[in-house]
Amino acid sequence: MTYATVPDRHPPSPGRRGWYKRNEIAVTPWLFLAPAILFFLFYVIFPIYQSFTVSFYSWDGLSDPTYVGLENYRELMDDSAFEVSLWNNFKWLVLYLLAIPVGLMIALFLNQTVTGIRLYKSLFFFPFVISQVVVGLVFTWFYDPTFGLLNTFLGWFGLPTVNVLGDPTLATYGIIAAGLWPQTAYCMILYLTGLNAVDPEQIEAGRLDGAKGARMLWYIIIPQLKPATFIAFVVTIIGALRSFDLISIMTNGGPFGQTRVLSFYMFEKALSEYGFRMGYGAAIAVVLFLIMLCFIAYFLWSMWKEEKGH
Amino acid sequence: MNLKKTLVGAALSASTLLSGAAYAESHSEPLTGELKIFLDTSNPAPRATMEAMIGRFGALHPDLEISTTVIDRDAYKTQIRNFLSADAPDVATWYAANRMAPYVNAGLFEDVSDLWEEPEIAENLASTKGAMTIDGKQWGVPYTYYQWGVYYRKDIYEELGLSEPTSWEEMKSNCQKILDSGRKCYTIGTKFLWTAGGWFDYMNLRTNGFEHHMKLAAGEIKWTDDSVRQTFANWRELIDMGAFVDNHQTYSWQEALPFMVKGEAAAYLMGNFAVAPLREAGLTDDQLDFYQFPKIDPDLDFAEDAPTDTFHIAANAKNKDAARAFLRFVVSTEEQTEINNAANLGQLPVNASASIDDDKFLNEGFAMLSSNSPGGVAQFFDRDFPAEMAAEGMQGLQEFMVFPDNLDDILNRLDKVAERVYK
């Protein structure tokens, strides 16, 4: 900064330019990308590769692994616990999507200007801020068969006690309901921001054409909320597939393993107190990864299509 | 030279007043270097006990640099795999019997059979030697253990005119009277499964005996065997009576305590660690009492569950001399008396020469285990059975307690798991 250099007005002779100078345009983006690529390779691609490899071995995590080929996968095929976990994952995927329409409804309801609406909005958003562990505990107490609010409430109507988390057929639905509480709040906030971006002129035009109520919502509002819907869909699907903490807190996979999902089962088999089957756990992880891959591929494809459209 | 060493040792022990004579004899050379100790005793009382004990050991060896790491008890169970192989401490806590097997087989625990040949340990610790033995060698030393049995509400029994049952028939008839009075006979919380393992242990030890139980744990008897079915049939009698609290699959063992405190259930099959929270909840020693699980087959000897907690030397330890000295110190008569007293761990000392604190339950437990358990002493379901078998087994036991009709399905499933685990 202390002195200015006189710009060199002679064009640099091609023979003397450095390699970097000659390839600057091609190389620079890769230089900027290099840290990210390295980390991605090391922390994402490499572990995925490792999971695939480990899944072909029988390994207790301590002694030497032995190669067993596809044995772990063959065993998965007639493992009833795996089947239960897979089904539960499916239930989570389908029912968790309820968060989207419910979140939309609450967002539409809250999208008005009355005194204190900010307070109401934040109250509705509140469950998303609480940790999943707390949500799990709160719902565990809510469902408790002896002193829980749910059964006290049922008692007022003379209905029999329901032990939601102790009943193998109900428990998964009970946990999903607990998970929907914060997830709905998340979808709601996505739609609230989306509603801000809705074009008032289009609504005006629609109103002139006589659209109102459900038709207005379906043909004018919802198409404009497409970006918000897409994000809500993505986070809900991912949320459903990562449903681990609620299960761990509320039922610990029980009663007798009926509320496990794949991620929980993998943890139990490979990493928990009695889990010494790294290979089997890795095989479950691979299956879970393949399921996720379907969704990820779909998301990437639709994003790519979106970008090409513009 | 030898005499001189002994004299120095004796002088050292006299000056500190803490170390045992045998200990001083075998270790008169000052220990140097660093000693890394990993502990899973993360609850406040055991933690303080252990830290005080290590403090006393440190005072004996001023040249030894001791570092202690306390890890949360549950987290420890998964971390031990990593730290034993990667960055091994010299000494680490763990559990006896089959819970050691994965680490013994992987060569991560040091063979300490030499310690067990020393007369001081061989004589005083004979009763737990079996639990520390795998492949004919010993892999660590115990530092505490505790009895299992039925803790019951004495006041409720008195109110109903019942006495401690001495036979299976009496246990059932007592239970019927308790049920008739509108209470449950036994509280239990099976959310974390292992409590059901305690019931199975006792049902099988009383129906088929210790030898059978250990053969089942070793995979030599099938789950679908008629003898095992008989165990479940006996257990089912209680289940069909409605002896256990409802919805137990939703509760942890702590959450099942209030049923007993409030008098809604009359008894709890548990380890001695249940006494402390029951006392804290307000039950006095007049209300709370203990009995040994009665015989089912009168021809079988009593055999009990008494889980043992242990110290081990890591195979990759750097200071094995100091680690061995520490293990000797832990099992010495004085330390065993001190760390197991009611103010500290409140459990039973593993050293036969140690004295037991004057506590009703410790006395009863000690009398039971030392003179009234001729059949043998088991560790506990999840310590006697291999890890995988234990996990699947306990899940099946919980299912059986809720849906006894699923028994065939459960037993077939367990046999399938056993085929893989024991191959």
From TrEMBL, chain A:
Location of the protein in the cell: Cell membrane
A GO BP entry: transmembrane transport
Coiled-coil region: none
N-terminal signal peptide: none
Entry-linked CDD domains: TM_PBP2
Membrane spanning residue stretches: 25-49, 92-111, 123-143, 170-195, 216-241, 280-301
Gene3D superfamilies found in the cross-reference section: MetI-like
Pfam families in the cross-refs: BPD_transp_1 (PF00528)
Main localization (coarse): membrane
Protein name: Carbohydrate ABC transporter membrane protein 1 (CUT1 family)
Organism annotation: Primorskyibacter sedentarius
Automatic annotation (TrEMBL), chain B:
InterPro entries the record matches: Bact_solute-bd_prot1, SBP
Signal sequence interval, chain numbering: 1-24
Pfam family, one: SBP_bac_1
Superkingdom: Bacteria
Species per Swiss-Prot/TrEMBL record: Primorskyibacter sedentarius
Family: Belongs to the bacterial solute-binding protein 1 family.
Coiled-coil spans in chain: none
Gene3D superfamilies to which the protein is assigned, alphabetical: Periplasmic binding protein-like II (3.40.190.10)
SUPFAM superfamilies membership: Periplasmic binding protein-like II (SSF53850)
Glycosyltransferase listed as a keyword: no
Entry keywords, A to Z: Signal
GO CC term, one of those recorded: periplasmic space
Listed name of the protein: Carbohydrate ABC transporter substrate-binding protein (CUT1 family)
Phylogenetic placement of the source organism: Bacteria, Pseudomonadati, Pseudomonadota, Alphaproteobacteria, Rhodobacterales
Subcellular location: Periplasm
